[in-house]
Design a protein that fits this description.
Helices cover 60% and strands 10% of the residues. It has 11 helices and 3 strands. The chain has a 3-stranded antiparallel β-sheet, covered by helices on one side. Strand 1 (183-190) and strand 2 (197-204) form a beta hairpin. The longest helix has 21 residues, at 139-159.
Length: 235
């Protein structure tokens, strides 16, 4: 698909509730590197650098919003919710609300493999869009737009105590990098029936990657997955 037409620019601006002073920033935010590489003359830039900026701006906006919650959250609580809100799946949902996939400039190969519906492509484009708004205006404007899009998700994460899903993230990483699934083993149960503590180990290709304990099997599995993710990052 070619770079944004004037009609498409109007469409995404209407969805976003913001009119760009510098349209080139919006074009860059929605230009995937695959399109740039296939159309060097037509597309001078792609959105990877802008995505990097948007990631930081988005993180600050979410962190500030959580800090200002009336019923104060602990540092650990804020960290947990922030990690959840900026994960790929949530950003994909935000991008879908804005129908970003309809406005992306993609290369032929990316287009043919369903790039407009890919979580990674859409979540990255959303971060780039935040960066574009920030560059075109200021932090307060970017904050207003982000919080308008994220409002329900932030409230739901706080009220329902939704948090970062270490098990899902570990599964995604292990599948994409190693082509297999993690295996969880409950190795110990201790304590009285109503005060049990479970210990879980998680294995990848038969190798122990993490151990965790909790008051439920799910909690112990989540703790094991968290440790495994940290080990994967180091390796």
């Amino acid at each position: 698909m070619p770079v944004l037409s004037s009609g498409n620019i109007q469409g995404i601006e209407d969805s976003l509730g913001y009119t760009f002073k510098h349209k080139s920033l919006l074009v860059t935010a929605l230009t995937h590197k695959s399109y740039h590489h296939e159309n060097v003359g037509a597309a001078q830039n792609h959105n990877e650098r802008m995505e990097f900026l948007g990631d930081s701006v988005l993180g600050l906006i979410i962190a500030e919003a959580l800090y200002l919650v009336k019923d104060s959250l602990s540092e650990a609580g804020m960290s947990k919710i922030k990690s959840y809100l900026v994960k790929e799946q949530v950003l994909f949902e935000m991008a879908s609300r804005l129908s970003l996939g309809d406005y992306l400039s993609l290369g032929k190969g990316e287009e043919s493999t369903g790039g407009r519906q890919k979580r990674s492509v859409l979540s990255n484009a959303f971060e780039a869009l935040v960066g574009a708004v920030f560059l075109d205006s200021d932090y307060l404007t970017a904050k207003e737009i982000v919080l308008r899009v994220f409002n329900e998700s932030i409230e739901r994460a706080i009220l329902k105590k939704e948090a970062y899903d270490f098990k899902s993230d570990l599964q995604e990483k292990v599948q994409s990098v190693l082509g297999t699934l993690p295996e969880y083993r409950i190795v110990r149960q201790e304590g009285e029936e109503h005060k049990k503590v479970f210990t879980t180990e998680v294995y990848v290709h038969g190798k122990l990657f993490g151990t965790g304990s909790g008051k439920s099997k799910k909690e112990s599995q989540m703790a094991a997955a968290k440790e495994a993710l940290e080990k994967l990052e180091h390796e």
